[in-house]
Amino acid sequence: MQNVLLRLREVQPSLSSTERQIAQFILENPDETTTLTIRDLARRSFSSPSSVVRICRVIGFQGYKELRHALTLELATLGENGSHREKDITPQDSLQEIVDKVTHKNIQSLLDTQRLLLLDELEQCVELIANARTVLLFGIGSSLCVAKDTYLKFLRLDKPCVVNEDSHSQLLQARNATAQDVGIVFSYSGQTMEMIQCIKEMKAGGAPVIAVTRYYPSEVAQLADHVLYVAANESLFRNGAMSSRLSQLNVVDILYTAYASRNHEDTMRRLTKTHIYKPGDPEVLTQP
C-alpha cells in the first residue's frame, strides 16, 4: 500500500501555498477525491491541473491517475483509520485533554512510521550494520539523543559504534569513514546542513549511509544510500522534537532487534555478559 494520505500529511508543511490547498482538500475529502477528474480537483482546490500533477510527483506518483488509484485502494483497506485528523493542542486545553492529545499523537506517529517502513530497505540496512567494521552515528539536538540511544544498544552486543556530541567532531568522524564502515544519520527535517555535509564526506570516502528522516524529498534523503522514513504528528508547542523523536527511537529499536535476531544464541550470551546487576536483582540474591 502506498499511503497517499500519510505522505500528504508528512510533506504538507513544506509545500507551496497552492500545493498545500490541494493537499488539504484531499486530506479533508479523500472519498470525494477518488471520484474527481484532475480538472475537477484543480477547480475544487482553487489550483491548476499542472499543480495537481506536481504534488503527485512530490509524494512519489507519476501523475494524478496513479495517485487516485492508490487512494482508492488505501481507503478500501484502512477505512476510517487511514484518514485520521489530528487535533492540535490549544491554550484552552485541560490537563486531561493535553494527556489525551499528546498520547494519541505519539501513538499515531508510531503507527504511521510502521506504514512507511519498507521491509526490503530495512533488511539491507541490517545487513550493512552486520557487515560493517564500525557504525558511525550522527545527529544534532534531539536527534543526538537518538544517536546516543543507538550507541548504547549496540554497545551491549559488542558492535563497535562511534558517536560524537559536537558537529565538528562528527565532521571529522565522517571524513575518516571508509567503505568498511556504515554511517547512520538521524535528521527529522532532512535539511540540517551539518548532517548534509557529513553525508557528503562519508560518501566521498566510500562509506554507505543510512538516513532516518521524515518522508520528504530532502537533501539528506536524496544523498543517503538507504532511507528509513519516520512520521511525526507534531504539536504546535514542540514542532519537530516530540513525536519525531519517538518515531526515530522506534526505528532504532527495530534495527537493533533485527540485528540481534540474526544470531540469537550469541546475542543472549552478550546480553548476559554486559548486564549490570543491581542490588535486589535475583541473580545477585542467589550468589553466595
TrEMBL record:
Keywords: DNA-binding, Transcription, Transcription regulation. GO terms for biological process: carbohydrate derivative metabolic process. The keyword Repressor does not apply. Gene3D superfamilies: Glucose-6-phosphate isomerase like protein, domain 1, Winged helix-like DNA-binding domain superfamily/Winged helix DNA-binding domain. Residues 2-78 form the HTH rpiR-type domain. Residues 125-265 form the SIS domain. GO terms for molecular function: carbohydrate derivative binding; DNA binding; DNA-binding transcription factor activity. InterPro entries: Homeodomain-like_sf, HTH_RpiR, RpiR-like, RpiR-like_SIS, SIS_dom, SIS_dom_sf, WH-like_DNA-bd_sf. SUPFAM superfamilies: Homeodomain-like, SIS domain. This is MurR/RpiR family transcriptional regulator. The lineage of its organism: Bacteria, Bacillati, Bacillota, Clostridia, Eubacteriales.
